[in-house]
User: Fold this.
Amino acid sequence: EDKVVQSPLSLVVHEGDTVTLNCSYEVTNFRSLLWYKQEKKAPTFLFMLTSSGIEKKSGRLSSILDKKELFSILNITATQTGDSAIYLCAPTGNQFYFGTGTSLTVIP
Amino acid sequence: DGGITQSPKYLFRKEGQNVTLSCEQNLNHDAMYWYRQDPGQGLRLIYYSQIVNDFQKGDIAEGYSVSREKKESFPLTVTSAQKNPTAFYLCASSIRDRRQLGSYNSPLHFGNGTRLTVT
Assistant:
């Protein structure tokens, strides 16, 4: 059975902290893994990972994929209140599969 | 600017009534999708369409119907048969990988969602 597990489910940190969000998956015909940030409405695309061990970076956010151990992590350094959101992990295979998300709250 | 437009943003209906949610995209994407989002459950796939005049059921299609008469448009009807219709509905689109049918290797682009409340 295809499944995606994100942890932790929720996280509260102070501005300036570094956080690591986890995503483990088991999907049929795995192709890639995508990370999204969802504030109030539409999820916005962050990263697409297709190869193991290659870190993708965008400002304070970075992500890496391990296709052997079937997981990915999303790191956010020097967190800001604007990082408060739900972060969704979506491995793709025969379709897009979504985890339940990690709800991040950054306190000033 | 290219994007996906969902309307309305909020929708209220009485139980027993069918309701149609609109989704229009001008990204020239072949594939379009409807997801439902409930608290604590992530996004669940209702229906998807990879090409005009063709669509497939997702994981929770019961009580829903769709049509794909035009590339730009993928409306979703929530019928009275849907037992728990109150939810946040998200429409998305993506490029279809023509090299391998059913391959999903490009990001989904989402609309801003429709929040449906049925009382």
Q: What stands out?
A: The longest strand of chain B covers residues 43-51. Residues 49 and 55 of chain B are 4 Å apart (CA to CA). Chain B touches chain A through 24 residues (CB under 8 Å).
